[in-house]
Automatic annotation (TrEMBL):
<comment type="similarity">
    <text>Belongs to the EIF-2B alpha/beta/delta subunits family. MtnA subfamily.</text>
</comment>
<dbReference type="GO" id="GO:0046523">
    <property type="term" value="F:S-methyl-5-thioribose-1-phosphate isomerase activity"/>
</dbReference>
<dbReference type="InterPro" id="IPR027363">
    <property type="entry name" value="M1Pi_N"/>
</dbReference>
<feature type="binding site">
    <location>
        <begin position="53"/>
        <end position="55"/>
    </location>
    <ligand>
        <name>substrate</name>
    </ligand>
</feature>
<dbReference type="InterPro" id="IPR037171">
    <property type="entry name" value="NagB/RpiA_transferase-like"/>
</dbReference>
<keyword id="KW-0028">Amino-acid biosynthesis</keyword>
<feature type="site" description="Transition state stabilizer">
    <location>
        <position position="164"/>
    </location>
</feature>
<comment type="function">
    <text>Catalyzes the interconversion of methylthioribose-1-phosphate (MTR-1-P) into methylthioribulose-1-phosphate (MTRu-1-P).</text>
</comment>
<comment type="pathway">
    <text>Amino-acid biosynthesis; L-methionine biosynthesis via salvage pathway; L-methionine from S-methyl-5-thio-alpha-D-ribose 1-phosphate: step 1/6.</text>
</comment>
<dbReference type="InterPro" id="IPR011559">
    <property type="entry name" value="Initiation_fac_2B_a/b/d"/>
</dbReference>
<dbReference type="Pfam" id="PF01008">
    <property type="entry name" value="IF-2B"/>
</dbReference>
<dbReference type="InterPro" id="IPR000649">
    <property type="entry name" value="IF-2B-related"/>
</dbReference>
<feature type="binding site">
    <location>
        <begin position="253"/>
        <end position="254"/>
    </location>
    <ligand>
        <name>substrate</name>
    </ligand>
</feature>
<keyword id="KW-0486">Methionine biosynthesis</keyword>
<protein>
    <recommendedName>
        <fullName>Methylthioribose-1-phosphate isomerase</fullName>
        <ecNumber>5.3.1.23</ecNumber>
    </recommendedName>
</protein>
<dbReference type="InterPro" id="IPR042529">
    <property type="entry name" value="IF_2B-like_C"/>
</dbReference>
<dbReference type="InterPro" id="IPR005251">
    <property type="entry name" value="IF-M1Pi"/>
</dbReference>
Length: 364
């Protein structure tokens, strides 16, 4: 996608610097900054501090981290150490483990001397595959939007609601939940997107930044406004992303997603999840019981970051002194509340049968 007319991916390899470049997303939407990632600690910090964020992007970042590890020391022991070091940064997002396992499986049989070059080539492949996966998700989701648009009075926009940023900066490009929006807009379909703020980090401010850059009409709303809009017929469909989806179709996503699904179910609004196949955890069935939910630091709750009237990016405390903040970062939406899963291969039911039929080669 483009930033001020220039095409960017969320990460890219700079051959001149011989290093990975990322967009440091902590400063968005107020400032656009890029950063070189040159040490394993840099990779860990980028993931932990959410300089990179979104399950697909985290997976691609980890693949480049494993490549760096192989340039430092391509031994079996160091590969195992790097796997643990990078995996411990974000236990919820399954793409991280998927990418690390894929690297380990591909590299272990190779001669030690060949591992560094092969690891870097594999990281490039993982990044490029993510772009194509998300493009295909967009084309499949476009069919749903076209069906809604065909039933609308002439000129009335299709009104979509999304929660948390599942846009191109949460992937390598295109995004998951946003990819159908970009394809629909490019096809000339009138859209209006309701963009949840997504406390505590207000990540959908990034979605607003993305959509605004692409010329898509949208409104930024509080997290608790979505149910009201659905009650009054102002939402045609909800589309979210996912950090991990179980084999039976339970969806783990940013905290607050479950409440949107409940409101959608109560009001007869379709609730779809954009699902790249690396986000499926085939080892887990019951998402509520078996997916670990990370508690992040309480400062994310007790402070908010923004830009003041002087144009400075600053933090402001919003709670009384001494008040503690609880910060579960994700919740799980049971499959019974999900209308369907938009994958790179098509749209399927949120069920074990649906996912297995769509991905017979992966369900194993």
């Amino acid at each position: 996608m483009k930033v001020d007319g220039t095409h960017y991916r969320s990460l890219w390899w700079d051959a001149k610097k011989d290093a990975l470049q990322i967009i440091d997303q902590r400063w968005l939407p107020h400032e656009f900054r890029t950063q070189s990632v040159v040490t394993l600690q840099d990779f860990a910090d980028a993931i932990i501090q959410m300089r990179v964020r979104g399950a697909p992007l985290i997976g691609a970042t980890a693949a480049y981290g494993m490549a760096l590890a192989m340039f430092i020391d391509p031994s079996d022991a160091h590969m195992a150490q790097a796997w643990e070091f990078l995996h411990n940064t974000r236990p919820t997002a399954i793409n991280l483990r998927w990418a690390l396992n894929r690297c380990q499986t591909a590299l272990l049989p190779l001669p030690v001397a060949d591992r560094a070059g092969a690891a870097l080539a594999l990281a490039h492949d993982i990044a490029n595959e993510d772009v194509e996966i998300n493009r295909q998700i967009g084309l499949n989701g476009l069919n749903l939007i076209q069906d809604i648009a065909a039933k609308k009075p002439s000129g009335e926009p299709v009104r979509l609601l999304t929660h948390c940023n599942a846009g191109w900066i949460a992937t390598v490009d295109w995004g998951t939940a946003t990819s159908p929006m970009y394809h629909a807009h490019n096809a000339g379909i009138a859209l209006h997107i309701w963009v949840d703020e997504t406390r505590p980090r207000n990540q959908d401010a990034l979605t607003s930044w993305e959509l605004g850059s692409h010329g898509i009409a949208h409104t930024y709303i509080t997290d608790n406004a979505g149910g009201h809009l659905m009650q009054h017929g102002q939402v045609d469909m909800v589309i979210t992303g996912t950090d991990r989806t179980t084999r039976r179709g339970d969806v783990c996503n940013k905290i607050g997603t479950y409440l949107k699904a409940l409101a959608a179910h109560d009001n007869g609004v379709p609730f779809y999840v954009a699902l790249p196949s690396p986000t499926i955890d085939w080892t887990v069935a019951d998402g509520v019981a078996d997916i670990p939910i990370k508690d992040r630091g309480e400062r994310e709750i007790t402070y908010v970051m923004g830009r003041n009237n002087a144009g400075q990016i600053t933090e402001v405390q919003v709670t009384p002194d001494g008040t503690h903040g609880g910060n579960p970062a994700f919740d799980v939406t049971p499959n019974r509340l999900v209308s369907g899963l938009i994958t790179e291969r098509g749209i399927c039911d949120a069920s074990e049968a649906g996912l297995t039929a769509m991905f017979p080669d992966l369900s194993g």
